[in-house]
Design brief:
The chain is of the alpha+beta class. The chain has a domain at about 55-179: Muramoyl-pentapeptide Carboxypeptidase, domain 2. It has six helices and eight strands. The protein has helices at about 35-50, 55-75, 80-95, 105-110, 125-130, 140-155, and strands spanning about 1-5, 15-20, 20-25, 30-35, 100, 115-120, 155-165, 170-179. The strands form two sheets. The chain has a four-stranded mixed beta sheet with strand order 1-4-3-2. It has a four-stranded antiparallel beta sheet with strand order 5-6-8-7. Helix 3 (about 80-95) packs across helix 4. The chain is globular, with a radius of gyration of 16 Å. The protein binds zinc ion.
Length: about 180
């Protein structure tokens, strides 16, 4: 089961098989869409139940989703930068925020001319879930970018959040780098 935030822009066909729950079958697997309030409640619960483990858990959930999306995208587009550019609109459509990925920066990273890439996320979904705080909080998005780029590059990359709307920045910025 994959949890995705339901957004009004999401055009995928969903059916109600359980009253009140939107479900769809993709690649033979059942996908359950949850609205942003439900997602928010789930996130808050995870963070409040175990504050020390929550960042790692959210990072790992994001990493798996990012790797899966990238593997799917890689089949359609031959180059990593094109695949990554193709993922931006999909992530926005799902409701995670507006991912700004520079094609040339991505290409330089793929070719090894740079060891770092930064991704700007406007209207990050985690700002809307309103977790609050003074430090970067988008562990899920950090995992998402780490998983996607690691899969596209075929190497283990690390990632962290430099700027975050939850601590007052205008947008979130995730940096992905080679070890
Ligand atoms: Zn953030």
């Amino acid at each position: 089961m994959v949890l995705l935030p339901r957004s009004s822009e999401n055009p995928r066909p969903f059916t109600h098989t359980v009253p009140g729950v939107l479900t769809s079958v993709r690649d033979g697997r059942r996908v359950v869409a949850v609205d942003i309030e439900t997602w928010s409640a789930v996130c808050k619960r995870i963070y409040s139940c175990d504050p020390s483990s929550a960042p790692v858990m959210m990072d790992e959930i994001g990493r798996q989703l990012g790797a899966e999306m990238a593997a799917r995208q890689k089949k359609q587009t031959p180059f990593a930068e094109d695949a990554m550019a193709g993922m931006g609109p999909s992530l926005s459509e799902m409701g995670w925020g507006e991912f700004v990925i520079d094609h040339d920066v991505m290409k330089a990273f793929r070719l090894g001319r740079s060891d770092m890439i930064s991704i700007k996320i406007k209207m990050c979904a985690f700002y809307r879930v309103n977790l609050g705080g003074q430090s970067p909080l988008c562990h899920f998005v950090v995992g998402l970018m780490k998983g996607a780029l690691s899969e596209l590059q075929g190497e283990r990359l690390r990632a962290w959040e430099e700027l975050c709307t939850s601590k007052g920045d205008d947008f979130c910025e995730v940096v992905v780098a080679r070890r």
